[in-house]
Amino acid sequence: NVLGYPAGVVPFTRVRADEAVGRAPSRDLVEQVALKVEQGSAGLLVGVQVVARPWREYVALAVMGAIEREARTQSDYPQTPVTP
After folding, report:
1. Helix (H, G, I), strand (E, B) or coil at 83
2. Which of 22, 28, 33, 77 is most deeply buried (CB count within 10 A of its CB)?
């Protein structure tokens, strides 16, 4: 990362089919782009990024481990190999 802080990303869940729809068509450019991005996103991974203070790698790793342990108990936890 740009700042050089200890950081990492942990897979947490997947986009559910009912979360990938529901945005009404709009004339607003931002809404149009958001709708385009959401279409076909069901099944994609959702991750959590963890960032710690400089020289505190152990904090980032501990938090990432705790998040992963909790996420693994969920039925929609992304298993490897990743397939949409």
Report:
1. coil
2. 77
